[in-house]
Amino acid sequence: MPTPFAAGENYAIELDGEHVVGRVWRRPDLDSASGARSADEMAAHLRSLTTEKRKSLLLDLRDAPAIAGPRTVETLSDLLRGCEKAGVRIAVILSGDAMQLLQFRRLVSTFAPSAGRAAVTLAEGEQWLSAGIRGK
Predict the structure, then answer these.
(1) What is the domain partition of the chain in residue ranges?
(2) For domain 3-135, is the CATH number 3.40.50.300?
(3) Quick one: pLDDT at residue 133?
(4) In this structure, are residues 33 and 9 in contact, taking their beta carbons and an 8 Å threshold?
(5) N or C: which end of the chain has fewer CB within 10 A?
(6) Which residues, 6 or more positions from 134, have their beta carbon under 8 angstroms from its beta carbon?
(7) What is the pLDDT of residues 110-134, one digit of tens each?
(8) Could you tell me which of 70, 93, 68, 89 has the C-alpha nearest to residue 80?
(9) C-alpha torsion sign, points 112, 118, 94, 131
């Protein structure tokens, strides 16, 4: 059963055994600077968890803004790079919005080519993560 770990203005993080689940949602009342600060805060929590004994991270962006701003992209790029370096599998679940798909498929393939997968369904992301667990 997932355990709440942290929450912010537009995100929540849960722990489920060796797995971390981060969810982000759209908040039209947040300006871009506030959104970027929330992304920084969430990423700091996620980085601390992925350097522990966590084997996978599911980042659910289905309800997030379709386009991430430059500061958020930088933050998420660092998170993806860290997962790649640590060998922590990461699945980024996307809404299916064409712009979001373009942006995040590029980010995942650039910064987490072995450890990451951009997926459009929760089932696809979970399958990617569980395949890595069985393979270890």
Answers:
(1) 3-135
(2) no
(3) 56
(4) no
(5) N
(6) none
(7) 999 999 999 999 999 999 999 875 4
(8) 89
(9) negative
